[in-house]
């Protein structure tokens, strides 16, 4: 299963991605994480601090293009039309590109870092969306088996959804605090998930009452709700051994719900369909406000 954690800045996306990866590993899963946030918080939570030697996906862009067999990329959007003909990526056996960017964290868990926060981005000549564009192809072309999970920690807000960078995921998990501003961002993300035809779920994070306020129901978000994660010192301190059994149970139940409801589909079709909408080749669906 390939999932991405998305939400407002400060909602706890990185923390829940970190927690999910630990619980997946605890349950015997092979786990591959992708830190796609500017702040690279997920990497830091695993004790990885990016410096000039860290093999980020941004720094291995030439190897990424070489793997695809593409000599030049004039338009990522139009490249999506050729997805079926492009070489695959794999975790077992691991392909050469993935092997170069994967950093072992613990057990059978590894992390790749997109590298949007590196100082060399300043002189790259690309905006963050251009640098992150490989995700649009890496995710749908990444082969995983039924024992493997991929977890993406996204940039805050809607940008990655707007550009279709997470369209190769099997599901999107919106991380929200029980606060109007956080829920407003989640509602925007939900609309984009509907547009991209990606299953969408919501987890309320840092909840200290176990009661969800009426804000959620008034925004018509309840059908997507799969649970809440309580305030937890172990999560705050990135110390999994100190995370409460209650928090672990809640994230495990949320992940089980996602796994049970997500059907295996060809994510390349989602990418192509979303890019066709972005290129205005087809109209916006009527069910997207």
List the main descriptive attributes of the protein structure presented here.
289 residues; alpha/beta; Rossmann fold; eight-stranded mixed beta sheet; two-stranded parallel ribbon; globular
Across the major sheet, the strand order is 4-5-2-7-1-8-9-10
Helices and strands, in order, run as EHEHHHEHEEHHEEHEHEHEHHH
Strand content: 15-25%
- The 3D shape can be described as globular
- Rg over CA atoms: 18 Å
CATH topology: Rossmann fold
Q: What do we call the CATH homologous superfamily? A: P-loop containing nucleotide triphosphate hydrolases
Question: Can you count the helices?
Answer: 13
Helix content: 25-40%
Poorly predicted runs are none
CATH-derived architecture: 3-Layer(aba) Sandwich
Number of strands: 10
Biggest sheet overview: 8 strands, mixed
Q: Structural class per helix/strand content?
A: alpha/beta
What is the CATH class? Alpha Beta
How far is the N terminus from the C terminus?
29 Å
- How many structurally independent domains? 1
